[in-house]
Amino acid sequence: MSKTNYKFCFGPWNLSEGQDPYGPPTRKAQTFDWKLEQLKKHGFDAMMFHDDDAVPDIDHKSAAQIRDEAKALRRRLDDLGIAAEIVAPRLWFSPMTIDGAYTSNDPKCRQYAIERSKRCIDVARYLGTDLIVLWLAREGSYLREAKNARKCVDYLVEAIDAQLQYDKKIRIAIEPKPNEPMDLAYIPTIGHALALAQLTCDPKRVGCLIETAHAILAGLDPADEIDFAMSFGKLWSIHLNDQNGLKFDQDKPFGSANLRVAFNQVRALERNGYGRRGEYVAFDVHPFRTTKEEHWMAHLLNSRATFLRLVEKARTFDEKTAQKLIANRDYQALDQMVLEHLMGR
Ligand code: XUL
Ligand code: MN
């Protein structure tokens, strides 16, 4: 099999300013133009967008304004030779989504979420991508008695169906996350996402996006999530990053917390041919709060460098010897062989 030439991307939110729930920003906000310039300068191939990254204040703009702004952005991207990988509706900021978006108990709020998602699809069309990402941020509950989870599954299907019917060409990639901001999310894993896809009116247009940190937060190995999703041909994007155990969503540089878990994700991507149908490798990473402005791109560049080193490690792994050890059930030796390989021998 020929080797994949991976294409890389990130989103404007990945050049964040260091604020956390306990303290203000530690770096001055940069403009969108500056972020796009950095992306180009450092050789990334595409940018991922929330709908309002592309068209700020989208809720207060007319369809014509949305069209004009999105088309103007598309021209700038084209000039730079940068693609738009995905567009995702930001369904967690508005006063209409305080109690959830698609699964709010209030029918007016559910309607808002569907309408907003249609605007997001418009933006995607103008930017030239057919891929919509749904991170179901507030679809869950803080206390279980507040919502009816059975009904919420119907609401999710209704919302996804409305989008699939609104545009017959789009594909939807669900990005599961088990918690944060909610205590418990309705769609916590890739298994849930792909099962939900089967209930929709066009299952083949509903797939998923795996984020390393989210899988770890669900207590799962992201490499197994990759193999599972790719068995269904449904891994349409990936957010590589890292996470130190069951804590807040850390979005650390790829490989930062556990190089071996990162290695196994790369092996899974390689063995399934991820990237051969045009899929991008995205890094959903944030700079540490301590990062100085002059080091603002380091977490992205380091993630890409680590990824490429691990591709080499995956390609030079001594598969023959590994298979012999497996046949002999000598997993002790296999374990050490992996460690030696990662350490450089
Ligand atoms: C949240 C997260 C989001 C999505 C895009 O944890 O990962 O940035 O990737 O909406
Ligand atoms: Mn993500």
General description of the model:
The structure is a single chain. This protein is of the alpha/beta class and 345 residues long. The chain has one domain: Divalent-metal-dependent TIM barrel enzymes (TIM Barrel, Alpha-Beta Barrel), CATH 3.20.20.150. It contains 12 helices and 10 strands. It has an 8-stranded parallel sheet. It has a two-stranded antiparallel sheet with strand order 5-7. Helix 9 links the parallel strand 9 and strand 10. The radius of gyration is 20 Å and the shape is globular. The mean pLDDT is 98. It binds D-xylulose and manganese (II) ion (MN). The site of manganese (II) ion (MN) has 4 residues, from loops.
Q: What are the low-pLDDT stretches, counting only 5+ consecutive residues below 50?
A: none
Strand order of the largest sheet: 3-2-1-10-9-8-6-4
CATH architectural type? Alpha-Beta Barrel
The radius of gyration computed from the alpha-carbon positions, rounded to a whole number of angstroms, is: 20 Å
Shape: globular
Q: Can you count the beta strands?
A: 10
Residue share in β-strands: 5-15%
For CATH, the homologous superfamily is named as Divalent-metal-dependent TIM barrel enzymes
Element-level helix/strand string: EHEHHEHEEHEEHEHHEHEHHH
Major sheet summary line: 8 strands, parallel
Give the cofactors and ligands: D-xylulose, manganese (II) ion
Question: CATH class, anyone?
Answer: Alpha Beta
- How many helices? 12
Strand-pairing-aware structural class? alpha/beta
Q: How much helical structure, as a percent, in the residues? A: 40-55%
